[in-house]
Amino acid sequence: MKNPWSWRTQPERYRLATTRCPACGDAAFPPRPICPTCGATVPHSPADADVPPRQSPLVLELTHAHAGVNGTNGQNGSAQALVEQVSTSA
């Protein structure tokens, strides 16, 4: 089963991509049009979504929930992860 079209067109869904504020230099995840730190407008472009965090995040807990709905052949369910916060500041 393929991932939905909306997931394939948003690269931040597959990795912890961030955007960096041009005013204060802080980064935000998920990418946002307004900086949560200083309130400045962050221009959105495909290149902005590729700012990596300064270190690799650590997955602390991973849960995969399987829903038992008849007729789906196990194709439905969801995954949730608890991820350690990492520094995105320069």
Folded structure, characterized:
By secondary structure, the protein is mainly beta. It has one domain. The protein is 4% helix and 21% strand. The protein is built from 1 helix and 4 strands. The chain has a two-stranded antiparallel ribbon. It has a two-stranded antiparallel sheet with strand order 3-4. A hairpin with a 6-residue loop joins strand 1 and strand 2. It is elongated. The model has no long low-confidence stretch (mean pLDDT 70).
Low-confidence stretches: none
Inertia-based shape: elongated
As a whole number of angstroms, the C-alpha radius of gyration is 16 Å
Query: What order do the strands of the largest sheet run in, or round the barrel if closed?
Result: 1-2
Query: Biggest β-sheet, characterized?
Result: 2 strands, antiparallel
Q: What's the total number of strands?
A: 4
Give the amount of beta strand, in percent. 15-25%
Record keyword descriptors for this entry:
mainly beta, elongated, 90 residues, 4% helix, two-stranded antiparallel sheet
Write the layout of secondary structure elements.
Elements: H1 5-8, E1 19-20, E2 27-28, E3 59-66, E4 77-83
Antiparallel strand pairs: 1-2, 3-4
Overview in brief:
The protein has 90 residues and is mostly beta strands.
